Amino acid sequence: MKRSNVAIFVPHKGCPNQCTFCNQNEITGCTSNVTKEDVISAVETSLYSGGYSKESEIAFFGGSFTGIDPEYMEMLLQAAYQYVSQGLFKGIRISTRPDYINQEILDTLKKYGVTSIELGAQSMDDEVLKANKRGHSAQNVVEACELIKQNGFSLGLQMMTGLYKSDEKKDIYTAQQLSLLQPDTMRIYPTIVLKYTELAILCLTGKYYPQSLEEAVNLCAKLLDFFDNMNIKVIRLGLHDSPSLKKEYIAGPYHPAFRELCESKLFVDKFLNEVKNERYTSYVAEVNPSYLSKALGQKKANIECLRDSGYDVRIIQNQQIQDGKFKLTPIE
């Protein structure tokens, strides 16, 4: 059985400014300072519950980890590293800003068993970065990625769609530019408007219009397919569901099963592309059992969508079909 990483949230620690969209306390549901005892407690709970494997990582998320006070950062890393050094976890994963990476920082991270670094790039358009008060440039992203890879870390990148001053063309450009940096993993987050953010003010005053759910799903389905074709694994698509997030949500394309919506849309898009030059209108589609719900869509929405497009489709399970793929057989 697949085990999850041990996630420890350090909200808004190390961030030099407040981005227009950001309210990490609400996104993570965590408002207090993390202590070394918190780290030990989280790891020990995972160990004793069996919710880990030696391939799991201890992950520090939520803020700019390498921007926090160096002594505080090393204290947290030391608390986690004792478990890595015993071989109980394969390493430590951290998230940070592109402009908070340098050789000295990377040397410290190596010392404490950090194996994966995720950068919140968010956009590769400097106008968008400036408008959202990110405080770094696209070139900072490029330079940080090169340094991380040169030092042997696994590289993860995060991007956002639908940011203030962005559009679909700019979001696709961002995905293309990030793919050139050859990350091992990607996270894609549609922009959500939360209370107590500058974006909330921009939204409520009519200066910012968030993506609709349909717009975000259509775009993120394309991005998911793009990264898959580039052999880059998308490990997160959409924000994690949480009570605190729902409480502070104002607007934007939030859905608790956002990734499944995108994968369902991708099935329809690929189906229509495959049959567009065929004379048949009835098909049997064979899919892996794990892909069945996504192929059908929520409440069989894909069947209805394809019927509206002029196709009668019956979807059946076949264990031999690769997950995420399908085999079509026309019906005379």
Q: Could you describe the 3D structure shown?
A:
By secondary structure, the chain is α/β, with parallel strands linked by helices. It has two domains: 6-256, Aldolase class I (TIM Barrel, Alpha-Beta Barrel), CATH 3.20.20; 268-330, Ribonuclease E, catalytic domain (Hypothetical Protein Ychn, Chain: A). It has helices at residues 24-28, 36-49, 70-85, 103-111, 126-131, 138-150, 168-180, 198-204, 213-229, 243-248, 258-275, 292-296, 301-308, and strands at residues 6-9, 57-61, 91-96, 114-122, 154-161, 185-190, 193-194, 233-237, 249-251, 282-287, 312-317, 326-330. The strands form three sheets. Strands 1-2-3-4-5-6-8 form a seven-stranded parallel β-sheet. Strands 11-10-12 form a three-stranded mixed β-sheet. Strands 7-9 form a two-stranded antiparallel sheet. α4 (103-111) links the parallel β3 and β4. It is globular, with a radius of gyration of 21 Å. Mean pLDDT is 92; it is low at 26-30.
